[in-house]
Structures are given as structure tokens and as C-alpha cells.
Amino acid sequence: MALNTELEIYDFIIIGGGILGMSTAWQLQKRYPNKTVLVLxxxxxxxxxxxxxxxxxxxxxxxxxxxxxxxxxxxEGNIATKAFCREHDIAFDECGKLLVxxxxxxxxxxQGLISRCAENEIEIEVLxxxxxxxxxxxxxxxxxxxxxxxxxxxxxxxxxCMGRLVEGLGGKIVFGTAVTxxxxxxxxxxxxxxxxxxxxxxxxxxxxxxxxxxxxxxxxEPDFNIIPFRGEYFLLGSQHNNIVNHLIYPIPxxxxxxxxxxxxxxIDGTVTVGPNAVLAFKRExxxxxxxxxxxxxxxxxxxxxxKLLCRHFKASMTELKNSLSKSGYLKLxxxxxxxxxxxxxxxxxxxxxxxxxxKNGDIVDDFLFMKTSRAxxxxxxxxxxxxxxxxxxxxxxxxxSELVTD
Length: 406
Ligand SMILES: Cc1cc2nc3c(=O)[nH]c(=O)nc-3n(C[C@H](O)[C@H](O)[C@H](O)COP(=O)(O)OP(=O)(O)OC[C@H]3O[C@@H](n4cnc5c(N)ncnc54)[C@H](O)[C@@H]3O)c2cc1C
Known about the structure:
The protein has helices spanning 19-31, 69-88, 104-119, 129-135, 155-168, 211-217, 293-300, 303-311, 313-324, 326-334, 389-401; strands at 6-15, 37-40, 57-58, 92-93, 97-101, 125-128, 143-147, 151-153, 172-174, 179-184, 189-193, 196-205, 224-231, 234-236, 247-250, 262-265, 271-274, 278-279, 345-347, 351-358, 368-371, 375-380. By secondary structure, the protein is an alpha+beta fold. It has 2 domains: 9-50 and 157-223 and 365-401, FAD/NAD(P)-binding domain; 96-148 and 226-358, D-Amino Acid Oxidase, subunit A, domain 2 (D-Amino Acid Oxidase, Chain A, domain 2).
């Protein structure tokens, strides 16, 4: 690596200015007020990728495998996120959510979710058809689970607020600076960017869609690849802002890793429909037509991708068909909300999920971290990682503090 570049020295360097990078930086700087913290973010401002392009739901923790990091951090994060919003004057709404069963098969699957809520100690109310109609006159189903602790928020505002807290405590955030190389030495990490080198005693990477590339930069071979799944939304016209009182979710298909197209009240008062889950051919390309030869080549030649596609071929094709046909997409939401029509669906920005997939085609379900002597990389942090950002940050600080010698 070229050494004739300007050098800056820090105690902790964090790659990524999404909600996980900002949460980690804030909690590290609080824990170590006399040490120096630097956040490097390639975009011009915080939360330009997953954190700023999601559903804004503060999840309760209904779905996750008992004992998993997702189950634990989501439940803790639900409480911590609301407390953070109260303390820092960020708008949120504990509006609750309904998981609606629309046929006998879903009603049966709903029983599994009821048991899971009991295992995860999530407070719920089970509604029959009439109770559902009373609570949500525009929604039809055979029954539903009501989860009162689910809420909504704008996660970009939380990430930006955490960034201000980092700076208030003396930390530094540098935007517009992409990390292009990383070297680990016995006494430090060296991080390369265009024209500048940074030495950090320790490094944390919260790079979302680029997490496998970060592992590669460190000279290691990741045992997973990030597969990008675009989540496409529509916005309902403002005449529908009061169409639902709560968030409305389908009963998810246990075979698929995503939650299904839902009706989401947003914190700005609007209502969105979505997201679906379509393979994206560019990691940070948000339009349907965006294409990167490098990203597509890497994805389509990855053995895990082929196995994943074979396993979920039918579901992938259905998602693709519904992405290309607005009326196909509409049918998904009409299953539980028949009054929504084609011309109610207006354009809305998409998001792209970073999903780690193993070589054998298994989707990495839980949050995943990788640690070396001086670095910790967040490898897999899909939903509900925004909800879980505060406990994930605390977890990372604990793991890093095990490495700190003075
Ligand atoms: C469509 C969709 C809906 C979702 N809905 C929800 C929800 O309702 N509730 C919930 O809890 N979660 C939800 N999620 C998940 C949640 O948004 C993510 O889990 C969370 O935002 C991850 O945060 P992050 O900081 O790891 O990633 P990101 O927000 O993607 O941030 C990573 C950052 O790293 C930067 N970076 C990458 N490489 C480099 C480099 N080389 N140099 C410098 N910077 C770099 C990127 O520019 C980016 O800013 C959703 C996600 C999507 C996509």
C-alpha cells in the first residue's frame, strides 16, 4: 500500500455512518471519553442506505427464534429506541401492529406465531374476525394478533441525532470518504482512503451492503456473501392517510426470510404499502433498471446464490412478476385491504436489504459478527437491526472493550 499519504491517528475507527455505525461510535465515545473516535462514511451525509430507506417500524420481536440475538436485541431495542426518542425529542408513535390471517392456512400458521410470542415474552392480544373488524374497519381477515408495543419512527433522524452526540462528546465524523483498503498490524489497524491513511488502535465496520467487501479488504475470506434484495414500496394518496389505525402485516411465509407486503403508517402521517423482496443487480442501485456488472457477476457466480435461487425459485419468480406488474403487487395488499385500487399506488423510493447468504445457500438468519485481534466487522444486520441499533452498539462496545488493553 502507498505510504506517501497524509496520516491521522485515532483510538477507534468506525466504518459506516448508518444507524449501527453511529450507535457504536456514540456508545464507544461515552464509554471512553478520553479516547479518540472517528467515523468514516463514504456518502455525503448519514443514513443514505438501509437506515434511511426502510419501513421505520420499531419492531416488538414477534418472529425471531427464541434465544437468538435478533430476539434479544429487538426486545431490548424496542424499549431503548423509544427511550432515546423521548430523551432527544424525536417523534415516534407506539401505534401497535396487527398480523392478519386471511385464510385457514394462515390462521393455522398464526397459532405458531402466538406460541412464539409467548416464548419471546411479547405481550399480544388475539382477535377474532369481529374484533378485527371493530379495530380496523377497512381490513378483512379471519383473525389477527395485535402487538401493542410495535411503533414507528424515522431512523434517519435517530442516526443523525446519534452523530451529533458523537461530535458533542469530541468524536469526529468524516463524510464523503470511502474506505478502500485495510491492514491489520500487531499494534494498530491502518485504513486507506483516497489520498489519506488513518491509523486506529481498533476498528469496527458497520458497512451494511458492503460488509463482505470489508472482510475481503482485510485480506480474509468471508464465509458468506451479501445478496442485495430490493424492497419496493408504494405510497397511498393522502386521502388514505387514515385508512388504518395500526400497522397491518400479513402472516409471514415461514419458508421466506422477509415479512411480506404490509401497510405501514409512517411517522410523517402518510401510509406506505410494501416492501416486496426482489433480487437487486446493483447493491446500492435503487431503481429497477440499475445494474452493476461487478455486483451481478459476483452474485451470480457465487455457489450460495445458485443454491438459494434453486431453493426459492418459485417465490423469486413471483416476487419478480409482482415487481414488474403493479396489479400483481396490488393483489398482495388487497388480500386484507380490498378498498385499495391501482391508481391509489403512487411511486415511493425503494430500499435494498443486505442479506448474508452462506456458500451452501442458507440465509444467515441471525445477526452475525466477525472478530479479529483488533477489529470487529458486522457481517449480517438485516431487519430488525434498526430497532436493535442501541443494544447492538452496546454489544459491539463490550466486544471491543475485551480487546482494549489500557
Ligand atoms: C426495505 C427495508 C425495510 C426495512 N424495515 C425495517 C424496519 O421497519 N425496522 C427495522 O428495525 N429494520 C428495518 N430494516 C433493516 C434496517 O434498515 C437495517 O438493518 C439497518 O438500517 C442496518 O444499519 P447499518 O448501519 O448496518 O447499515 P446502513 O444503513 O446500510 O449503513 C451502512 C453504511 O456504511 C457505509 N459504507 C459502506 N461501505 C463503506 C466504505 N467502504 N467506506 C465508508 N463507508 C462505507 C454506507 O455508505 C452506509 O452509509 C429494513 C431494511 C430495508 C432495506
